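JOB MANIFEST
job_type = single_chain_structure
chain_count = 1
residues = 84
[input]
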Amino acid sequence: MGDLRADEPTEVLDVLGRVCPYPLVLTKKKLEKMEKDTLLKVLCDAPASAEDSIPKYAEKQGFGFDSVKVEDKGHWELYIKKTK
């Protein structure tokens, strides 16, 4: 699928300060409203959501997924490509 971080996201979802399960719930709701072949960038600082629940959800749905931890800011940038 390539490096999703290189593409301009269609939408950005900020869930900073939210604890599990809200980042996953809000990500799911956002993706439901988005069109096929669009890219969502999620800003998340909840480790369980960024490293476990959201990647597993994206994989289960067959969506493209990429992430990067922004060490100096203490959060992750998650890139999810809605493919269906």
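[summary]
Residues 22 and 35 are 22 Å apart (CA to CA).
The mean pLDDT is 94.
exit_status = 0
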